[in-house]
């Protein structure tokens, strides 16, 4: 199923339909400010397992959470003054911040880890879904390592739907990007390390 949402003014009826899917254990593909991503509700452990299976890997380090705002980030991760300033300067935006996780995050997400990747995409559809859901999305970008030069399979919602037939819905928010987020590790005692340089430079 493909559901169309427009970034300028996401349709409330369709938005509620998306959230209903998530609240009942569904897995979706949705647009971000980087590539399209798989997502499910944080409180749905079976959906988290499905997401991992659909994406085709067991590596929990590839899974992050998408929050509505910095206040919500602070509920699910430990945020000191330095990190707060970084988040405030750079979010919403195409960044994944690796932070010490709080106990509120499901073991299905953590799988033995003590850190979690956190995102607030600069995308009105992603933000609207998370706000309407009332909790973070567990998320992982659609796979980019197996499409070769056929970038349409990570940017075109119709082709993404063809590729990920096992999801419950693909949210068509228009053509996506093919640049990854910049990954920033903030867990090394006050040091900030760029793990992966993505489409945007970090503002300190």
UniProtKB/TrEMBL annotation:
Residues 12-200 form the YrdC-like domain. This is Threonylcarbamoyl-AMP synthase. It comes from the Bacteria. PANTHER family: DHBP SYNTHASE RIBB-LIKE ALPHA/BETA DOMAIN-CONTAINING PROTEIN (PTHR42828), THREONYLCARBAMOYL-AMP SYNTHASE (PTHR42828:SF3). The lineage of its organism: Bacteria, Pseudomonadati, Bacteroidota, Bacteroidia, Bacteroidales. Gene3D superfamilies: DHBP synthase. GO terms for molecular function: double-stranded RNA binding. PROSITE patterns: YRDC.
């Amino acid at each position: 199923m493909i559901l169309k949402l427009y970034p300028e003014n996401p349709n409330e009826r369709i938005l509620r339909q998306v959230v209903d899917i998530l609240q009942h254990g569904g897995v979706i593909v949705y647009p971000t400010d980087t590539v399209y991503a798989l997502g499910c509700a944080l409180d749905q452990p079976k959906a988290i397992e499905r997401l991992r299976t659909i994406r085709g890997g067991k590596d929990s380090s590839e899974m992050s959470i998408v929050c509505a705002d910095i206040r919500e980030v602070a509920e699910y991760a430990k945020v000191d003054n330095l990190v707060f300033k970084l988040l405030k300067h750079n979010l919403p935006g195409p960044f994944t911040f690796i932070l010490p996780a709080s106990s509120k995050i499901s073991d299905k997400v953590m799988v033995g880890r003590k850190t979690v990747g956190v995102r607030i995409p600069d995308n009105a559809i992603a933000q609207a879904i998370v706000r309407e859901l009332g909790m973070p999305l567990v998320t992982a970008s659609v796979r980019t390592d197996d499409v070769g030069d056929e970038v349409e399979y990570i940017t075109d919602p119709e082709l993404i739907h063809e590729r990920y037939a096992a999801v419950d819905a693909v949210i068509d928010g228009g053509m996506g990007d093919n640049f990854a987020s910049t990954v920033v590790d903030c867990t090394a005692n006050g040091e900030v390390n760029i793990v992966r340089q993505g489409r945007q430079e970090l503002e300190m």
